[in-house]
Amino acid sequence: MNLAQGASSANYFHWLFDFLPKIYICSKNYNISKINYFYLSEPQNFQVQLLNFFKIKKKQIINSKLYRHIQGDKIITVDHPWYKKGYFFDEFNHVPKWIVAWLRNNFLKRKKNFYSSKKIFIDRSDSKSNHSQIINKNKVINFLKKQNFKVYRIAKMDFFKQIYLFWNADFIISAHGAGLANLVFCKHKTKIIEIKPENQPGDYFKKISEINKLKYVCLKNKVQKNNLKGDMIVSLNDLQKLIIKIKKKIH
């Protein structure tokens, strides 16, 4: 089965909303256990966990970075489940609700319980990208800790613990990043503040929040150029105002 998808192959968000739905669609027409090999980029740990859900083993994966051309008696490929044309940022507004429902129905029951806070801040400074990074992150973290938020880095966290972290939380604050795809696992009415640079056009986490009936607000920031620490300086005053606002927000 062909699962090659260019640069997005290693992205957590795309795995949840592109790759897994593709495998599910394929499973409705073919017996997955009868497929010998799956053609995609070298898998990360979280991808191996996700593939195991379909009983796909690492030895069945053909690394597209190493093998640029393949042949077989039968090659199966699936169209993208929601992207059809134009800009990706616009197309996600049409993401099917069944994907959100399917992810919740299949993975929430497999969440791994551990002690985690109800108020969480996702620190994405472990991302290799300089985009959507908070320059004054330490000030933001100190400010939020005084309001009983606990800081989590999730890039290397077990997938099923990530599910529990987001499901268990009542209030989540995070800079824009792939980890917010986990909003799909939140309980209804969970409060969400997404922090992002004003030149980031994607509203997909707002869309997920709408489908999942979350209380969502966004804090947009002027882009800071040529700063190695990031591209946003967050106003603590503006953040405080949003925290107050979202507590009053009613769907």
Features:
251 residues, 5-stranded parallel β-sheet, 8 helices, 13% strand, Rossmann fold, 7 strands, alpha/beta
Task: Walk me through what this model shows.
The chain has 2 domains: 6-81; 111-248, Rossmann fold (3-Layer(aba) Sandwich). Helix content is 32%, strand content 13%. The chain has 8 helices and 7 strands. It has helices at residues 12-27, 45-53, 88-91, 97-107, 137-145, 159-168, 204-211, 236-248; strands at 38-40, 61-63, 119-122, 150-152, 171-175, 191-197, 215-221. It has a 5-stranded parallel beta sheet with strand order 4-3-5-6-7, sandwiched between helices. Strand 1, helix 2 and strand 2 form a beta-alpha-beta unit. The protein is globular and about 60 Å long. It starts with 11 loop residues before the first helix and ends with a helix.
Order of strands in the sheet with the most strands?
Answer: 4-3-5-6-7
Rg to the nearest angstrom? 19 Å
Structural class: alpha/beta
Q: Mind summarizing the main beta sheet?
A: 5 strands, parallel
Estimate the strand proportion: 5-15%
Q: Which spans of ≥5 residues are poorly predicted at pLDDT below 50?
A: none
Envelope shape: globular
Oligomer classification = single chain
The number of domains: 2
The SSE order reads HEHEHHEHEHEEHEH
CATH superfamily of the largest domain: Response regulator
Q: So how many helices? A: 8
- CATH topology value of the largest domain: Rossmann fold
